[in-house]
Each structure stands twice: as structure tokens, then as C-alpha cells.
């Protein structure tokens, strides 16, 4: 039986180390490949920096966009989407948690169903919606920087991403609002605050972990999005929208794929995510911390 | 400020939380809403506060009907069971929050906050956050926040439930003194009858959303209107024994299998006047049951359980199938299983109609309940 007891931790470590090692191996290959001319497994056949040349030179010729412009685009989509999702979710989450109104239950089930919906099936209908938006003056296509909210614009991509992310966001935020005691709100109402003030000054500061979690998830979803940006933007005259699409353009069907360059760009796309994670990890883990003293 | 509740009701779907409540609270009075969990007392309090809208009936502050007024327009201060302090703000910010919302000038805000905090004994804690305070200190901050806007009425929702026994005792006295000094009308919700008895000038007892009785503590203790009130007020609780009520040879008697006692004529006559049925429920408090020598006793019973309380011993006796509890001076020298003679104070015997659960000794004048 002593063998049994010794076996447990060994098994635990086994199941932790092996999958982690496999994943890390992948990243290791990525790293080595991006700095090599060619690789044989994990062995580099020659170190070089030329795969990273996209950082200072446009790889498809002087007319094609630089990586930095594309990074900016990706950033705009991700951040814009995060801000919208957090704003709308925190307000609707509050309403769903605290207010009684007709159709509340139906709305809640609808958010769950919508969240489970595969986005792929809706691509065609969304195309028509975006085209229709493009017809609207100014909003459709005239806004600087993001180009508007219609088809083939960054705004349009962000809008679609927000729509797909919202059910999840609303559900999460409602959960966090449910955790706040009613007495605190009642006290604020008696003290003289309006409902909106209660939301802004009393509740939101106590929801910070929830907002942090939602922001992180939304940002990552926005940064890594591929299908939506790819489908709803057109690669015309070399114009490329976001990093994931840019990455895909390296894997051409008519030329040999330069896997080393792919590895480099892939790593490049990873860097902000890693940095983001390093800073927000503490906030994420705090969701489970809780920390309310005595209260109901 | 006077508060008058008239025909007040509140439904939550099919559930009737408060049913046709009529209550009048005088200016500067301390009234307790007492009852078990779920009896509707907190719902009533929240309707007075304006958090819940009444389903029917009216609430009046002095002569003004306030049903439609928002909580912030009612000039009330409220202390919650969980204190409901804002955890992300300092004590100072918590206390001055109502003032800030009223756009009071900064200097005046500071003055008033300091004054109230000093009065509550937390003057030095203004920089701390609620999480850094003890339970008792948090309680005082909650009180300070309610008082700082100098409200016309103070509402308490079981504020002492989260405190340990000793602190509870102290805060009880402090809150009572505070209310007396300030002269503010106060409504205090509790399930603890000791709190209600010691603090309130009048107690409204509620059960299942219905007002059972409303009167001064001594009135409720000495002349309980209903079986529920009799059993709820007073600790240890009143003993109830089934007996038959008989009139014979010019006297009134209560008889059960093991005992027969003669009750004073006035009480018997009153019971007869109130159409007391043949079967009644007799109520007698443990402090009115005494251990006596053989010849003085009303009946005999067997010692079943002895619970020392320090100053007295609470002894449970068994006779027939019934149990009766008595408070005897400590130390009680009987043994478990021993048969002892007991005597009941006839002047303190209560009688109740088993079906209506109403006391048959109500004299009609000086009645304590509103119906």
C-alpha cells in the first residue's frame, strides 16, 4: 500500500508535465524556426534574422501594407470590441440581475442559446446586414481610421465580433452582479443615489474582477479572431486587415510556403498576448478570491 | 414624525408577505416589529423605506401619503443587518455619502461627519476601510451613516444579529439611549423578543404577514392576546397544558387528568363572559410554577431534566403525557426521576380558546391589539 501512496504524486506530476511539455515543445519549435533558415525537427540548420524582416520591410513589395499598420488595425478591432462588450454587458447584466421586466426569463435563455450558436452558420446573413449598413451615410463607410461600420471596414468587423461575444459577456456580468448584496444598493438608494449612480459608484467598483475577466477574454477573442475578419474584409490591392489574415497570406496556394516566416509572424502575433497575460494574471486569479467580510 | 400604516399589503406573486396591516407609530416613539423569520416584518420596514411599493394600502408620514415618494425623498436613515457599508470607500466616505449626494459643502460635510463619528465612538477610524474594522465598529459606522443626515425616522433591520452576545447587549443599550436622546421616531425589526422587550415602547408582533398584537412590553407579557404572542414573548417560553374549564359549586375550575385547580372568580367570570369553550389551553409561565411541600401543592410531577442557568435552574417536569417547565432558585436539590410537588400561581394562569387561539381573558378595555 505504500507503493500506492507514492504512486499518486508521481501520476499527478506525469499528467501535468507530459501535456505541458508537448505544448512547450510546439512553442520551442516556433521560436527556433523563426530564427533559422531551415530546421530539421528542433535542430536549426542556420541562424538568421531574415524571417523577421517583415518588421522593417514590407514582404510583398513596396505597395503592400507594413506589419505595423496591420498591428494597429488588429489593436483597434480588439480594443474597440472589448470596450463595447464590457460597456453593454455591464449595463445589461445589471438590468437582468436587478430589475423585473417582461420577458426577462426569455431573454436569459436567449443569451445562452445565442452563445452556443456556431458563428459559421451566420456568415452569409451577416454579410447582407453589413452590406446594408454600408449603405447608411457616414456610419456605413465614412469614419476615419476605422472606416465605418459596414462591409469591408474595421468597424464592421468589430461590430460582428461584439455581437458574438455579447451573450457570453452578459451572462458573466449577470453572475457577478448576482453576487453583490441587495442591502448595499438599498442603502445607497436611501442615501439619495439614483439607480444609475448606484450602478456607477457603488456596484461597478465592486465588480472589478468580473470586468477584468471579461476584458481579458474579449481582448483575446478580438486579437486572435480570424474567421470574421477574413470573411468580412476584402484583400484588394494588397490591403490586409488584421494579423491573423496577414499570417494566412503567407501560406499561398501558388508559391511555396515560407514556414520560417510564418513562424516569425506567428510569434509576433503572440507577443502582445503574452505581455497582456503577464499583467492581468493576478486580476484573473482574483475572481475566485472573493473577499467579503461578514456580509449577507 | 408620526407614521401611520393603513390597510398595508404586499404580494410577491401568489405569496402574501404582508396582509392588511394597520399600525400607528407616534412621533419619537420606538416601535419594534417582532416575529419569526418570514412573518413580513422586514417587508413592512422596506415599504416604509420606499424600497418596496405596497400592493395596496397607504403609508403616511405625519399627514402626507408617501406611497409614491422615492426612498431618497423620505428623509429616512436605515441600518441593515449586514451593515451594507461600501467596501471600496473609507469610513469617512461611507458616512458622508448621503451628504455628498445632497451636495453639502465640503467643510460642513467634514464637521457633521466628525460630530456623528465622535458620538458613535469611532472618531479616530475615519480613514480606515470597512474591511479593516471589527464587527462592532462597522455597526457604528452604519449607524453614523444613518444619523448624519439627521433623518425624521430611523429604521433598523435586525442590526444586532451579526454581533456576539456581549457586544449585542452593549449596543442594545446604546441604541436605546441614542434614540431617547435624539427623540427620533424609530422602527426596529427583530426576531429576538428580548431585544424587542428591552428597547421598544410598543411591540407589534407579526406572524404570516398578519399583525397579532400591538402594545407595550408589559402588556404583551402580562396579558397576551393570542396563543402565539403568549408563547413567543418571554423566555423561557410559557407552558401550555390542555384542560377542561368547568363551573361548579359557585367556583371555576380547570381540570386535566393529573391536576385540578380552582382559578380566581374574576378570571373565571371573565372567561365565561368571553364564551370560553369546555376544552381550553391553559398557559402558565415557568416563573409562576413553584416547588412546594406536599400539602401546598396542586399536583405532582416527575423530574425529567435540569438545566442550570446560574441564578436559577430550569427544570422540566413530566406528568401524564405533559411536560411543564419551572424556574426554581438555584441550586435545585431534586433528582431526575424524583416526584416533586408543584404549585401554580392562579393569578397568573392564562386561558386560550384552542380553535381561535385567542385569549378568553381579554377584558375589552385597555385592549392591546388593533383589528
Structure description:
The complex is a heterodimer of chains A (296) and B (371). Chain A is mainly α and 296 residues long. Chain A has 11 helices and 2 strands; from the N terminus they run H-E-E-H-H-H-H-H-H-H-H-H-H. Chain A has helices spanning 2-34, 67-98, 104-116, 123-134, 154-179, 182-191, 195-203, 208-224, 227-232, 243-249, 259-285; strands spanning 39-40, 43-44. In chain A, a hairpin with a 2-residue loop joins strand 1 and strand 2 (43-44). Chain B is 25% helix and 34% strand. Chain B has 9 helices and 20 strands. Chain B has helices at residues 41-49, 91-101, 106-119, 135-147, 165-182, 193-199, 217-222, 227-232, 265-273, and strands at residues 3-12, 15-25, 30-34, 56-61, 64-65, 76-79, 153-157, 185-190, 202-207, 210-215, 239-248, 251-255, 260-263, 279-284, 289-292, 299-308, 312-319, 322-329, 339-344, 350-352. In chain B, the strands form 4 sheets. Chain B has a 6-stranded mixed β-sheet with strand order 6-7-8-3-9-10, sandwiched between helices. In chain B, strands 13-12-11-14-20 form a 5-stranded antiparallel β-sheet. At the A-B interface, helix 6 of A face strand 6, helix 2 and helix 4 of B.
Key features?
heterodimer; A: 296 residues; mainly alpha; two-stranded antiparallel ribbon; 1% strand; disordered C terminus; B: alpha+beta; five-stranded antiparallel β-sheet
Strand arrangement across the biggest beta sheet of chain A: 1-2
What is the mean pLDDT of chain B? Answer: 89
Portion of residues within helices of chain A: 55-70%
Q: What is the end-to-end distance of chain A?
A: 46 Å
> Number of helical segments of chain B?
9
Provide a short characterization of the protein structure.
With 296 residues, chain A is mostly helical.
Please write out the topology.
The complex is a heterodimer of chains A (296) and B (371).
Chain A lengths: L1 H33 L4 E2 L2 E2 L22 H32 L5 H13 L6 H12 L19 H26 L2 H10 L3 H9 L4 H17 L2 H6 L10 H7 L9 H27 L11
Helix pairs in contact in A: 1-11, 2-5, 2-8, 3-5, 5-8, 6-7, 8-11, 10-11
Chain B lengths: L2 E10 L2 E11 L4 E5 L6 H9 L6 E6 L2 E2 L10 E4 L11 H11 L4 H14 L15 H13 L5 E5 L7 H18 L2 E6 L2 H7 L2 E6 L2 E6 L1 H6 L4 H6 L6 E10 L2 E5 L4 E4 L1 H9 L5 E6 L4 E4 L6 E10 L3 E8 L2 E8 L9 E6 L5 E3 L19
Parallel strand pairs in B: 3-8, 3-9, 6-7, 7-8
Antiparallel strand pairs in B: 1-2, 1-4, 4-5, 9-10, 11-12, 11-14, 12-13, 14-20, 15-19, 16-17, 16-19, 17-18
Amino acid at each position: 500500500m505504500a507503493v500506492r501512496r507514492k504512486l499518486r504524486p508521481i501520476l499527478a506530476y506525469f499528467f501535468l508535465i507530459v501535456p505541458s511539455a508537448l505544448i512547450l515543445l510546439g512553442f520551442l519549435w516556433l521560436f527556433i524556426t523563426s530564427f533559422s533558415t531551415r530546421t530539421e525537427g528542433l535542430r536549426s540548420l542556420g541562424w538568421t534574422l531574415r524571417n523577421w524582416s517583415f518588421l522593417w520591410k514590407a514582404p510583398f513589395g513596396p505597395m503592400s501594407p507594413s506589419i505595423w499598420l496591420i498591428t494597429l488595425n488588429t489593436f483597434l478591432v480588439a480594443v474597440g470590441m472589448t470596450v463595447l462588450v464590457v460597456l453593454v454587458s455591464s449595463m445589461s447584466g445589471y438590468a437582468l440581475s436587478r430589475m423585473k421586466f417582461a420577458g426577462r426569463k426569455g431573454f436569459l435563455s436567449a443569451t445562452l442559446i445565442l452563445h452556443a450558436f456556431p458563428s459559421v452558420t451566420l456568415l452569409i446573413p451577416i454579410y447582407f446586414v453589413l452590406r446594408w449598413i454600408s449603405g447608411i451615410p457616414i456610419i456605413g463607410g465614412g469614419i476615419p481610421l476605422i472606416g465605418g461600420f459596414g462591409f469591408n471596414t474595421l468597424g464592421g468587423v468589430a461590430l460582428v465580433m461584439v455581437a458574438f461575444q455579447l451573450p457570453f459577456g452578459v451572462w458573466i456580468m449577470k453572475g457577478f452582479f448576482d453576487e453583490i448584496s441587495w442591502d448595499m444598493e438599498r442603502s445607497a438608494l436611501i442615501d439619495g443615489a439614483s439607480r444609475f449612480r448606484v450602478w456607477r459608484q457603488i456596484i461597478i467598483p465592486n465588480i472589478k474582477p468580473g470586468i477584468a475577466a471579461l476584458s481579458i477574454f474579449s481582448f483575446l477573442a478580438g486579437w486572435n479572431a480570424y474567421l470574421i475578419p477574413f470573411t468580412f474584409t476584402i484583400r484588394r490591392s494588397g490591403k490586409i486587415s488584421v494579423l491573423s489574415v496577414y499570417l494566412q497570406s503567407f501560406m499561398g496556394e501558388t508559391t511555396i510556403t515560407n514556414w520560417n516566416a510564418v513562424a516569425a509572424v506567428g510569434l509576433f502575433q503572440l507577443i502582445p498576448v503574452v505581455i497582456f497575460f503577464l499583467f492581468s494574471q493576478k486580476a484573473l486569479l482574483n475572481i475566485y478570491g472573493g473577499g467579503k467580510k461578514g456580509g449577507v | 414624525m408620526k407614521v401611520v400604516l393603513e390597510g398595508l399589503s404586499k404580494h410577491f406573486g401568489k405569496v402574501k408577505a404582508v396582509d392588511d396591516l394597520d399600525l400607528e407609530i407616534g412621533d419619537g416613539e420606538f416601535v419594534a416589529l417582532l416575529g419569526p423569520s418570514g412573518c413580513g416584518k422586514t417587508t413592512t420596514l422596506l415599504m416604509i423605506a420606499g424600497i418596496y411599493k405596497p400592493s395596496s394600502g397607504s403609508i403616511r408620514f405625519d399627514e402626507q401619503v408617501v406611497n409614491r415618494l422615492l426612498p431618497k425623498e423620505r428623509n429616512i436613515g436605515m441600518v441593515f443587518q449586514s451593515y451594507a457599508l461600501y467596501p471600496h470607500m473609507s469610513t469617512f466616505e461611507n458616512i458622508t455619502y448621503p451628504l455628498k449626494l445632497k451636495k453639502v459643502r465640503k467643510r460642513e460635510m467634514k464637521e457633521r461627519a466628525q460630530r456623528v463619528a465622535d458620538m458613535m465612538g469611532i472618531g479616530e477610524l475615519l480613514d480606515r476601510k470597512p474591511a479593516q474594522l471589527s464587527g462592532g465598529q462597522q455597526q457604528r459606522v452604519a449607524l453614523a451613516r444613518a444619523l448624519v443626515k439627521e433623518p425624521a425616522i430611523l429604521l433598523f433591520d435586525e442590526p444586532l444579529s451579526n454581533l456576539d452576545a456581549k457586544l449585542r447587549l452593549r449596543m442594545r443599550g446604546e441604541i436605546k439611549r441614542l434614540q431617547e436622546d435624539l427623540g427620533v421616531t424609530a422602527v426596529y425589526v427583530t426576531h429576538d423578543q428580548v431585544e424587542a422587550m428591552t428597547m421598544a415602547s410598543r411591540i407589534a408582533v407579526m406572524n404570516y404577514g398578519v399583525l397579532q398584537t400591538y402594545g407595550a412590553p408589559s402588556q404583551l407579557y402580562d396579558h397576551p392576546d393570542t396563543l402565539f404572542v403568549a408563547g413567543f414573548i418571554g423566555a423561557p417560553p410559557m407552558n401550555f397544558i390542555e384542560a377542561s374549564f368547568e363551573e361548579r359549586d359557585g367556583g371555576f375550575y380547570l381540570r386535566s387528568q393529573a391536576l385540578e385547580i380552582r382559578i380566581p372568580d374574576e378570571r373565571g367570570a371573565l372567561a365565561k363572559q368571553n364564551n370560553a369553550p369546555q376544552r381550553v389551553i391553559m398557559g402558565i409561565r415557568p416563573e409562576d410554577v413553584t416547588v412546594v411541600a406536599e400539602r401546598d401543592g396542586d399536583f405532582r410531577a416527575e423530574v425529567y431534566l435540569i438545566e442550570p442557568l446560574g441564578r436559577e435552574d430550569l427544570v422540566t417536569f413530566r406528568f401524564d403525557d405533559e411536560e411543564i417547565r419551572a424556574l426554581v432558585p438555584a441550586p435545585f436539590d431534586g433528582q431526575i426521576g424524583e416526584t416533586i410537588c408543584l404549585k401554580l400561581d392562579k393569578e397568573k394562569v392564562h386561558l386560550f380558546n384552542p380553535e381561535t387561539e385567542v385569549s378568553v381573558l381579554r377584558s375589552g378595555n385597555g385592549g392591546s391589539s388593533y383589528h
